[in-house]
Amino acid sequence: AAGGIHGRKVVLRTLDDDNKSPAAEANARQLISEGAFILFASQEGGPSTAVAKAAEELRVPFFGPMAGSPNLRRPHSPMVFPVRAEHRDEFRALMEWGQRTGLKSVGFFHADSDVGRAHLDNVKLAATELGMNVTLTLPFKGDISDPQLDDMASQITTTLPDMVLNHGSAGLYAKLIAKARKARIKTTFMAVNSGSTQLANDLGPLAHGMVFAQVVPSPWERKHAISREFQEAMAKSRPGVALSYGGLEGFLTAKALVTALQATGKDLTRANFIVSLERSSFELGGVTVRYTPKSHDGSNFVDLSMFSREDRFIH
After folding, report:
1. Phi/psi of residue 63, nearest 5 degrees
2. What is the mean pLDDT of the chain?
3. In what order do the strands lie in the sheet with 80-81?
4. Is the pLDDT of residue 199 over 90?
5. In the chain, count of helices (H) and strands (E)?
6. Which one-letter DSSP state was computed for residue 19?
7. With 90 as the cut, is the pLDDT of residue 240 above it?
8. Cα Rg of the chain, angstroms
9. Are 39 and 51 in contact (CB under 8 A)?
């Protein structure tokens, strides 16, 4: 509406990777070959890691992957600029809340993959720093069967960790929680932001009282300026469409990109864009995003929400 950024229009082209890493990498290479200035806002850890591989190889900036994978930040990737906090920050926030409420032992439901094991290492590290113990690990494959989930529920019954948290996979985690609740297991189940709405919807009343980590403020409350701006933009451009955490994360990521492009100035090259980013700290209505030449962490904003008996998230 303002004529672009320094006179340049932003053109967004999207390709669907169907949540498959090989397709994500192929899409990234195709977009670059067709003249994309940067790669932007892929979703989920596996596809985002694949896009990062192409970005590093072809030396094209990859801005705002909407995923919490540790390997998007460590080891340092000069071309990759996440905006949202990573899962490590979410795990720690959940475990700190558990510790404050008297919970001491932890169970972790995670993908049986290199990324899942990296997440497990981060959970163990946080537990050590907080004086807690990881007493149960529950690795799963994508084709996990119902009997295998029954066995995991039995392991929780036997081990009785004070709390269990997850790495993504909301549908599978919901099934595990439902089985545990049917067995009257008293363990406190908590979850990261990925699929929190799906998880709450799948569980219904069983989700009441569950605590979730969120990487953006509440999209429904008005305590943060970014939430108010999001609500007003949605009311204007998409009236009647429901607000969501994912919607606000997308809005925040796009706002971060526009702010970074504005800061780069009229002499827009990939090299100048990177130099500008690595000198910048952006205040985005209550969420700070910061990059340096040695750290591309972006934001470390993590908030906690609880799913209430009124079937809504409260922060």
Report:
1. -110, 130
2. 95
3. 39-40, 62-63, 80-81
4. yes
5. 10, 13
6. T
7. yes
8. 20
9. yes
Q: In terms of Cα–Cα distance, which of 45, 42, 46 is closest to 63?
A: 42
Query: In this predicted model, which residue has the larger pLDDT, 2 or 173?
Result: 173
Q: Which amino acid is at 144?
A: I
Alpha-carbon distances of 178 from 107, 157, 175, 183, 194, rounded to whole Å: 16, 13, 5, 9, 18
Q: Which DSSP helix (H) or strand (E) runs through 204?
A: none
Structure tokens at 240: 């009647």
Q: Which two tokens stand for residue 266?
A: 């009229």
Q: Please identify which residue in the block is written with the tokens 């189940």.
A: 189
In this predicted structure, what is the pLDDT of residue 10?
A: 93
Rounded Cα distance between 298 and 253, Å, is 10
Least Cα distance to 303 among 222, 206, 171, 192 occurs for 192
- In angstroms, how far is the first alpha carbon of the chain from the final one? 34
Tokens 């800061």 sit on residue: 263
296: which strand partners? none
Amino acid at 90: E
Instruction: List, in sequence order, every residue forming a beta bridge with 292; answer none if it has no partner.
Output: 295
Does the pLDDT value for residue 278 go beyond 90?
yes
| Six-digit token string for 90 | 């979410």
- Give the model confidence (pLDDT) of 282-312 as tens digits: 999 999 999 999 999 999 999 999 999 999 9
CA distance 145 to 124: 27
Q: Which two tokens stand for residue 157?
A: 């019954």
H/E element holding 139?
A: strand 133-140
Place of tokens 């498959």: 20
